[in-house]
Amino acid sequence: MTSGTAAASDGRGAESAAWGDDGDMLGGAAPADVSNPFGPFLVKPREDCPKAKLRIAQERQPFEENSMKSKLAIILAALVLNACAAAPHHPYHGQHGREIKSLSAEEVRGYLAGSGMGFARTGELNHYPGPRHVLDAAPTLGLSPAQLLASQAAFDRMDTIAKSIGAELIQRERELDRLFASGTASPEDTRKLVMEVARLQGEIRLTHLNAHIEQRALLTPGQIDRYDSLRGYPTALVDGH
Q1: 115 near 133, Cβ under 8 Å?
Q2: Which of 74, 75, 113, 134 has its CA 20 to 30 A from that of 189?
């Protein structure tokens, strides 16, 4: 039997001449591979060799680990979303510990400090500047000494009145809260306190709006237009005041 016949009968043929048992290429021609369109230029290692198997496993490991991490991340994200969707929404959650249940700590501070709290928004957004912001922007607006003094006086009046009414409002809200906390609330007592709170809120709003009216009368049309621009509002040159 010829050497070629012996190689063929061994079942490995020319492949044995090209690859050793450790998966490394030896001398000789590379085995023909009809599935490889690049012919002998690209040679695939034998996957049944120990070193080749190890090499393949090492190459696959990072990919498999990343794939597993991605799957775990997706599963965890789905669990979190499901938990959020299943959790009931309670708008008053955590508010039971407030000193006055109807007011947040920020609102209490705002009333006591005489802050605007949006009460004068109607004036502010309709070209009626507020004294506090006018004073802050005095150099940019070009206020004269007389305008500066008058604006400060307008602010001081507003601030004093708003603080006083705000403190009274907080007291009425505290009484209303205690009434319900005692379990003795009646329609008559509740109506009295609620109407008083509403009156005080109206007084605070009037105080701030009147200050904006007073402030507008102290400025020129050009200054009002400049004020609106500084505050990021659409400008509209105001005439006739």
Answers
A1: no
A2: 113
143 closest CA partner among 75, 38, 218: 218
Give me the pLDDT at residue 17, please: 44
- Residue 231 contacts by C-beta under 8 Å, 6 or more apart in sequence? 124, 133
- For residue range 132-182, what is the model confidence (pLDDT) as tens digits? 999 999 999 999 999 999 999 999 999 999 999 999 999 999 999 999 999
| Closest to 207 measured CA to CA, from 168, 241, 148, 160 | 160
Tokens of 83: 């938990």
Q: What pLDDT, in 10s, does the model give residues 224-237? A: 999 999 999 998 75
Distance CA 75, CA 72 (A): 5
CA atoms of 78 and 25, how far apart (whole Å): 48
Q: In the chain, where does DSSP find H-type helix?
A: 3-9, 14-18, 50-86, 105-113, 121-124, 131-136, 138-141, 145-181, 187-218, 221-231
